[in-house]
């Protein structure tokens, strides 16, 4: 069995909010890797390809957020529940401080951790996720396809959504489709997706962040003290690139890197470049 296989790195932590599944590999400063959302997503699906490289320098923890993968679901606010789960994992492993990498939803979760618990975050890296639409509409193409899947799951709708996530459609393999679909229609996972991406949920989010409530989406970003690297795919059809402009401006110590020919999964689609960029940033 490979030292970086699913089985060899798999662990479970019991907490007051339920069990948290995570993967662990490597030694050194702690790097917590927080996955995004969407049909069939898990921490392993997002970050398995990056684990070997980052574990050369860091003690890597890849979390399954509540209701995803093998972690128990929790009631209430989905974002708040994810923040609690990440901090509970660090507490349960007696970790005082960690670097954070968050993809999409994981970036939003990581931004709230960095803002509310600054002493616990060394550096913060986000792959899309944080910010607000300036020129592009909300919800965009990828989110609309995600909503269509959660409302009426089918293999065809999953394929449409997966293609919206990438610049190069060749990355959407039959193995990815089958693995994602099997996980996506699992009842707990599907229920978790519907909390965020049903038509009612997306409509409520869009209405809330219009007008006087717009600032609430981004207000916490100004409180992030950690050095922050914002990464984005130039061709992201889920979270268009203009979303990055506000966090780049209001996070005090932030820098922005745009990957060309890249969709929503920079850590997969531009794997080597992403790993080199992030590794050098975290090791400064």
From TrEMBL:
Organism: Candidatus Litorirhabdus singularis
Any one GO molecular function term: hydrolase activity
Domain AB hydrolase-1: 29-270
Key word Ligase present: no
SUPFAM superfamilies linked to this entry: alpha/beta-Hydrolases
Source superkingdom: Bacteria
Gene3D superfamilies according to UniProt: alpha/beta hydrolase
Protein name (database record): Alpha/beta fold hydrolase
UniProt keyword list: Hydrolase
InterPro entries, per database record: AB_hydrolase_1, AB_hydrolase_fold, AB_hydrolase_sf, Epox_hydrolase-like
Record Pfam families: Abhydrolase_1
